[in-house]
User: Fold Cyclic nucleotide-binding domain-containing protein from Parascaris univalens.
Amino acid sequence: EEVRSPLLKEELSVSENVSKVEYGFKRAERLKFDINNEMEAEIERCYNAYKPKIDDLDLATTIFRTFGKGLIKKGKLSPDGFVQMAIQLANFKDQKKFVLTYESASARFYANSRTETLRTASKESCAFVKSMLDPNSNNEERYRLLQIACKNHVNRNRECMVGKGVDRHLFVLYVLSKAISVKSAFLNYFIAQPWLLSTSQAPTLTDQMEEDANADDSWLGAAFGPVAKNGYGICYRFAGNHSICIHISSLKSAENTDSHRFRKHLVESFVEMASLFEGLTESADSRS
Assistant:
């Protein structure tokens, strides 16, 4: 689904010229397998076992084209932080509460490392969301709190990259406690907490295609289901400087979630948040 908004009337000056470089991106090709009767029967069995799970998946996708990371950077904000704060705002509109939020962060400074958990929901993000929904607040205060929340998000991400996150350490302690038969109420409580928002940014394809000119083709995959039965799974990526691609998943059997409803809240939050600094970026452009 394509989403447009009349909010931004001027085009961005960031990467407007489409590169003429030939990229080596190739579309997927169907593979043909030779299978015997036994394998065919097993495939059919697996399909029938998994079909109910597929039917229960509520998936909503969109390519948000009103703006992308180009405008967000003009607002002096982290693009990832901006999207994560929008997810927090959208979820509060959807669920009327703050929830434990997972974002995968790379522990890239360590050999053979994988990920650490970046806990997006914070005191700073909550303060920003509350200000957005407070009729007595003003845009100047909201923008100030958004800057603080995004800066805090960036700092937490840096801590995760250098091994200063908490979740992997606690998980190791939990595994050790089981191995040596030590009971820990704290660790049991930690491991049982549901991630009602599970989020991740997918990598860009800048080395394979010109994303500003091919936003539709840049979103060929990358999505995941909710990790909690009554939660959401949200995968997103920036297609060049002008678009944001989003996958939102939940379970149809969950009574409190609706992926299409959440998408509406998220797109609405993008537009509302950009309006906080749209005038500031226009003023900066007029002075340059």
Q: What stands out?
A: The chain has two domains: 60-162+196-288, 166-193.
